[in-house]
Amino acid sequence: MIKENNIFFVGIKGVALANLAIILKKMKKNVCGSDIDDEFITDRTLKDNQIRIFRNFDPADLPESTDLVVYTAANQSSNNPQVLEAKKRGIRILHGSQLLREIILSYKRAVAVCGCHGKTTTSALLAYSLIKLGKKPTYMVGTSSFAEFDGGDYGNNHEYIVVEGDEYGINPPTDKTPKLFFLPVKYVLATNIDFDHPDVYRSLEETEKIFTQFFNDKQLFLCADDKNLMNAVKKINPQRYQTYGFDKKADLQIKNWQPEADGSSFGLSYQGNDLGQFKTALFGEKMVSNAAGVVLVLLAFGIAADEIKTAISGFTGAKRRFELIYTDRNTWLLDDYAHHPTEIRATINAARARFTGKRIIVLFQPHTFSRTRLLLEDFSECLNLADFALIAPIFTSARENQKDFGISSLEIEKKARKLGKNNVFAVGSTGELMAKLKNIIKKGDVIFTMGAGDIYKLGDDIIKEISKLK
Questions:
Q1: Does residue 17 sit in the same domain as residue 111?
Q2: Is residue 310 exposed (0-12), middle (13-18) or buried (19+ Cβ within 10 Å)?
Q3: Nearby residues of 150 by Cβ (< 8 Å), 6 or more positions away
Q4: Same structural domain for residues 36 and 71?
Q5: CA–CA distance, 37 with 457 (Å, rounded to integer)
Q6: Residues 153 and 287 in one domain
Q7: Is the pLDDT of residue 160 over 90?
Q8: Triad 456, 458, 461: Cα angle to 5°
Q9: Alpha carbon distance 449, 339 (integer Å)
Q10: Does the structure show a pLDDT above 70 at 237?
Q11: Assigned domain for 187 exists
Q12: Domain that holds residue 82
């Protein structure tokens, strides 16, 4: 457990550091931090937990009492002025992943939820279920909030801890060590493996290798429907693993999935034994699969199926994951973090199941030049699943320069045109995007802001347009 009492977080508004800060604040530590002035989705939770934030990164703002400084790859990483000041003063410095490791070590049942897609919702649902079951878990997931809970909390009993396992490097390009490797957990729930983060990994095979290294000597709960995941596991042949999914050979098999107006209904069979029907307020095949993964973990912890049914039923999702922002005049605005073609496809398909017969309009903001260039054709194909897709300029990373990639949002539109599609449009600014939306939107539409950047900030402007509909 963390011995220091006065802890300063550099870049505290980032989701990971914000949730770590909340956990330590609830451990009765003195916590504060610094960040830029821009609005983040963590602003409210940090304020609610009375955590002070200093503007920007002035070394003079680092309190004299500080005995631990925590940073991430953002904001110049270890070269941040406040991190350099801490080095001068001889203050202990940890990367956020190292801090999380030290927290995990004191727990008996540590679970990491990993996978290239779906891990935030799945880890949030697992934490939510343990809360509802009265287990008082400590948890840290990759969102600012879910249901009525913050994205991080301290349970104070050192029995259960749930963490979202991130496969990204701790400080690319200088240090590409996966954050997963800092998680000393016994249990792993894995949703899938896909080729993402081309700035860190060169291929799907390299990505698979990272996961299999992490899986070693752990008890695994794996999605049987994901071919990449199951192929990777076959290469290491772990002795302790169970599977879940729609696959008939899965240990926990999903049956009779039915989309409903308020979520999904599905049956489960565990190693041939019928567990009955389950309900979730989540939508789409992938979300049902994620829920089944959580059920499998809870069953392994000795919790009765009927208790699990009750525990999972009230979960409405994590922030920025199929999140309902506003509805009026039979028109809906939702927000989703989907930024990879696999995620976009799953979200649009879930929307089709939820909003039968309605037009789906996606306002998409690509994330990083490297991902956009690598998956260009996939982006054009999955966005075609919407009735209209308006593509904002690419949300950049400080670690990339557009000149090195020669790619823009317009390339997605051009690729869509070559496929014979005329429903994908690139725009040069958010102002142009809103002007285009005004000409398209009709009463009864379902609009998504989508992407890992700041596209969600258009919410208020879109609500104004909805209020004008007749």
A1: no
A2: middle
A3: 19, 22, 45, 48, 49, 144
A4: yes
A5: 15
A6: yes
A7: yes
A8: 145
A9: 11
A10: no
A11: yes
A12: 6-99
